[in-house]
Amino acid sequence: MSEDTSPTRPAPAAPAAGAAHPSHRWRLPAMALLAAALAFGAWGLWRSFSGQDAPAPAPAGAAAATPRQMQAELEQLRQRVATLSRSDAISRQANRDLQSALAERDEEISGLRADVAFYERLVGATGQRRGLTVHALKMQAQDGAPSAWHFTTTLTQNLNRGAVSAGRLTLFLEGTRNGKLEKLAWTDLRQQADAPGVGYSFKYFEQVEGDVFVPAGLTPVRVTVRLVPQSGAAVEQSFTWADATREAAATTAEAGRSGT
Fold first, then answer.
1. 189 shares its domain with 117
2. Are residues 166 and 117 in the same domain?
3. Number of domains present in the structure of the chain
4. Which of 153, 144, 120 lies closest to 227 in space, CA to CA?
5. Within this chain, do residues 123 and 225 fall inside the same structural domain, yes or no?
6. Quick one: where's region Disordered (predicted)?
7. Beta strands 165-177 and 198-202: pairing type?
C-alpha cells in the first residue's frame, strides 16, 4: 500500500466563543429602527388624541366678529351697493339725455341746412325768379280729435322784390268714401257756411297756418291749396295726402313765421 504524500489542509478554525454570526450583524440595527418608528407613531397618535396638534387659539384682539359687527358690515355693504346702483342709474340717464340731445342737434342742423338752401334759392342772386307760389304744405293730425287736422303752408315769391303779396288762402280736399270720389270745399273743411280764407301778407315768404276737419269715413287722396291775391290771378298747387302728411325735415322757414 502506497503512502499518501499530499499535503494535509488545516481544518477550519472553530468560531471564537461569543463571536456573532454574520446574519446577526444587521438584526440589532433593524430592530432599533423598528422600535424608533413604533415610538414615533405612538407619539403622533398621542398628540392627535390629546389635542396637541389643534390650531393655536387666536391671539388677543383678533376674536371672531360678533353678530352685531357682522350686521354692521352687512349694512355697509348694502349701502355701498345702493350707492353704486344709483350712480349707475344716473350715468345711464345722463347717457340717454346726451344721445337725445345729439339727435336733436342733428335734426336742428338738418333743418337749418334746408332753410339755408331755401333762402339761397329764394333771395340769392342765382335763384330762379318766381311769382306767388305754394312752396310746401304740411298736414298734422291733432291729438284727441281724430277728424281735426292742422295745416301749415309755406308761400313764396321773389319775382317782384320788395313788393308785398297779400290775399286769402283756402284748401280743397279730394278723397274716397264708400267707393265714391268726393271733393270737399273750404267751407266743408271748416264746417262753416261762410268761412273766410286765411289771410296772408309778405314780401318774400310766409308760413300760413290753420285748422280743418276731415269727415269720418273719408280717405283723403289729394289736397289743393288755393291762393287768391288782392290783385292778379288765383294760384293753385296740389299735393298728395301722403306727401302732405309725411314728416319732412325739409319743411322750411321753421324759425320765422313771416319775411320782411
1. no
2. no
3. 2
4. 153
5. no
6. 1-22
7. antiparallel
Of the candidates 178, 197, 199, the one whose C-alpha atom is nearest the C-alpha of residue 189 is 197
Same domain as 210, residue 119: no
**Which domain does 201 fall in, by range?**
133-245
Per residue in 201-228, pLDDT (tens digit) is 988 888 999 999 999 889 999 999 999 9
pTM score: 0.51
Cell numbers representing residue 166 in the block:
297779400
- State whether 226 and 140 are in the same domain: yes
Long-range contacts of 227-230 (CB under 8 A, 24+ apart): 227/132, 227/134, 227/155, 227/167, 227/168, 227/169, 227/200, 228/167, 228/168, 228/169, 228/170, 228/197, 229/132, 229/165, 229/166, 229/167, 230/166, 230/167
Q: Is residue 234 part of a domain?
A: yes
